[in-house]
Write a structure and sequence with these properties.
Length: 234
């Protein structure tokens, strides 16, 4: 079968455009997990090896992180992790909570029986994953749960805005925070019940509270790891 060269080129271009974001995502995770701390230099070679890319996407990913305020460039020396505070984290989650809360409220008005059934299935699978200690599966199911709600809201532009905020937040290690796993198991069923009963006010409120609680758990985790050595980083 003949392959359209233009389509092939477009796919390659899209892949190349995605590599810097892969780098940025990897470094964000390391920052938010406490593996690297403010003031530490980020060496290019280990990042290239970890992500499986060349120097160019790494440099582009670093510039992306610089534009987001996660890293700073030191002339002739490279990039260091920028300082950030507890308030910075709470601000990011506050923005996420406002958008996700509105999407949940709209989902309560629009959600179908099929979509509710899918949420029930996700929650059942999540319980199994938690019992098995499968942290990656717990993380994936958590993302899928929220994607289903955002899709049910049928508000594409609002979902895109939420996505632009969420990409600044860590993805992979929520399932390592015991309190966050417990909150998911306990709060997701309550949220689904609000959706099932078409209670827009409750859906909005529960979603906002759920995300705000996530911020508290993340901050507590970073404090345990010594992210902030004194009380100046409020």
């Amino acid at each position: 079968m003949m392959v359209d060269a233009r389509a092939h080129g477009a796919r390659n271009a899209n892949r190349q455009q995605g590599l810097p974001e892969q780098v940025a995502s990897y470094v964000r995770e390391r920052i938010f997990s406490g593996e690297v701390k403010p003031g530490e230099f980020l060496r290019m070679e280990p990042i290239c090896e970890a992500v499986g890319v060349s120097n160019t996407p790494v440099r582009e990913g670093m510039q992306l992180l610089r534009s987001e305020g996660f890293v700073q460039m030191v002339p002739r020396r490279g990039f260091i992790v920028a300082s950030f505070t507890r308030r910075d984290i709470r601000d990011l989650f506050w923005a996420q909570a406002q958008l996700a809360g509105e999407l949940a409220a709209r989902a309560a008005s629009n959600i179908s029986s099929e979509q509710l059934a899918r949420l029930d299935q996700i929650m059942a699978e999540n319980k199994e994953a938690v019992a098995a200690g499968d942290s990656q599966r717990v993380t994936d199911l958590g993302h899928e749960f929220h994607r289903q709600i955002n899709h049910a809201a049928d508000s594409h532009r609002l979902a895109l805005l939420l996505g632009s905020v969420v990409k600044h937040l860590p993805n992979r290690f929520y399932a390592t925070i015991e309190q966050q796993v417990d909150a998911t198991v306990n709060e997701h069923p309550q949220l689904v019940e609000a959706l099932r009963t078409r209670n827009t006010r409750a859906a909005r409120s529960m979603m906002k509270k759920h995300i705000a609680t996530t911020a508290d758990h993340l901050i507590a985790k970073l404090e345990e790891q010594g992210m902030w050595s004194d009380d100046t980083a409020k």
